[in-house]
Amino acid sequence: MTEKLKPCPFCGGKAEIEGERIFWVSCQECCAESNSFIELEEAIEAWNRRA
Ligand SMILES: [Zn+2]
């Protein structure tokens, strides 16, 4: 189960999943972050929906 993360909507940088008990996605370039979610998939979706 590997969900694909879109590149950062702000700088196009590489995004990575963070967290263990709660999850969020952060850009490795500009430190933009998604909200935090209990479900990993929700964090990924939130990030990917961001425009
Ligand atoms: Zn970025």
The largest sheet, given as strand count, sense and whether it forms a barrel, is:
2 strands, antiparallel
Distance between the termini: 24 Å
Q: Quickly count the domains.
A: 1
Radius of gyration: 10 Å
Question: Helical content, roughly?
Answer: 10-25%
The number of distinct β-strands equals 2
The string of secondary-structure elements, in order, is EEH
Number of helices: 1
Structural class: alpha+beta
As a percent range, the share of strand residues is 15-25%
Mean pLDDT: 92
Largest sheet strand order: 1-2
Low-confidence stretches: none
Judging from the principal axes of the Cα atoms, what is the shape? globular
| Bound small-molecule species | zinc ion
Chart the SSEs and their pairings.
Layout: E1 15-18, E2 24-27, H1 40-49
Antiparallel strand pairs: 1-2
Zinc ion binds next to loops.
Describe this structure in words.
- The protein is an alpha+beta fold.
- The chain has one domain (1-51).
- It has one helix at 40-49, and strands spanning 15-18, 24-27.
- A two-stranded antiparallel sheet has the order 1-2.
- A hairpin with a 5-residue loop joins strand 1 and strand 2.
- The protein is globular, with a radius of gyration of 10 Å.
- The model has no long low-confidence stretch (mean pLDDT 92).
- Zinc ion (ZN) binds at residues 8, 10-11, 13, 27, 29-30, 32.
